Amino acid sequence: MTDNSKYIEHEGKAVIPDARFKHVMSITLDPRTNYQEGVIRCITSRDGDIAIKGTVDRSELHRIKGNSSDHFEIGDKLTIKNEEEIISKLMPEGYECIGLEDPDIWIDQKNDLMHLYFTIAIIIKDKKTQKQTRIHLGHAVGKNLDSLEMTEPVLFDNENRIHAKEVSIAPKNSKGLRYNLIESRDRRNNTTYSVVKMAIVKDMGESWEYGETVFNPADHQEIKWIAGHASPGPLLSKNFINVGEGKLLGIINGREANQKIGDKIKYGMFSVGLFIYDYENGKIDWVSPEPFIQDSEALTITFASQFVETGRGEGILYAHVDDSFVRAYTLKAELLKSLLPK
Fold first, then answer.
1. In three state form, how does the secondary structure of the chain look?
2. Does the model's pTM come out above 0.90?
């Protein structure tokens, strides 16, 4: 159970699916527009049950615009130059791309450029064949959302079945590198885990390098709420809360261990927790022993994707609920301190 005295769940929904989409998720916002414009993942079709392994969501990235922190409208599909050309090069014979997912905006303030990162999800067409996915961390760059151009992915799904998605962008360390975090995967004893892996970055717009796995649920079965899957969320600034030199407090998404029911795999509850990241050395020092946020309406998923700092020690976290709508939550640093290690 989560202690909801440590956050404020906003009434209503920050983004509600419109007539075009039954499900929307994964919001990212542009700070240069005072966080009033951004991108969201919209589900065009869903095959399966999100609580059961094997669901296939087909997705599009759409623009959003808000008139307050609590309400955003879904706009047109995001146009990215060279999208078809780049994706066609990634497609093995017999495979298809089911869309772009999980967008993250990062602004290069020095050059006033927008970098957009996203999952490129590719699956095999023949469902009789065991489904083998290809999951690349895609990238586009431009002055703003009107001028994005796709490049090759910054991280490819490699021959060892290591993939990359859900990027969490870290500050530069003393070596001039960013040890960003990504969601990847590992397989142990016939069980697949989502793990948090480091990505070594010299240039945010060029190819990245896979680093070490920094959190694997298989090695932390004592933390029940994140014993099945882990995915990095936003890192919170030192202006919001200071947890030490070269370290940041962050949001981490975790899921309970899978359950086998007959010939199906049922997922556990996905919740939002906290972690402390040593971005100087690329290590996770601590993960909260209990989840931090579970939405009041969540049946299986609360998954955080964006944090907006609204003042010193205060901000708004956005998370999607059951991969269907987006909710906002107010976080206050003073309330979080009691959850952190002494």
1. CCCHHHEEECCCCCECCCCCCCEEEEEEECHHHCCCEEEEEEEEEEECCCCECCCEEEEEEEEEEEEECCEEEEEEECCCECHHHHHHHCCCCCEEEEEEEEEEEEEECCCCEEEEEEEEEEEECCCCCCCCCEEEEEEEEECCCCCCEECCCCECCCCCCCCCEEEECCCECCCCCEEEEEEEEEEECCEEEEEEEEEEECCCCCCCEEEEEEECHHHCCCCHHHCCEEEEEEECCCCCCCCCCCEEEEEEEEECCCEEECCEEECCCEEEEEEEEECCCCEEEEECCCCCECCCCCCCEEEEEEEEEEECCEEEEEEEECCCEEEEEEEEHHHHHHHCCC
2. yes
